[in-house]
Amino acid sequence: MKHIAALQATVTAASLDFEPSAAELDAIEVEMPLIRAEVDLLDAQIMTIDRPPTELDVRRVRRARRRVLAARRDLANRTPEPLTGGAA
Questions:
Q1: How much is the pTM?
Q2: Is residue 65 a contact partner of residue 41, using CB atoms and an 8 Å limit?
């Protein structure tokens, strides 16, 4: 009988203790307005889960959706920053 061994290295807790790089943190910072808008939309939707939405709830969700769309538009239309430190 042959034993089947994993071809990938085992994942340990030590391999997951790395901090995000500066580039990853910068990317998160750029996307933060969209993340905040999506959290606000989720909050507005959660408030209406267990009860019928009032007119104020409907407006709150509609405004939150518009903020998400605006943040997505701004992120998509953003011009990328030139890379620094690269060879020309």
A1: 0.68
A2: yes
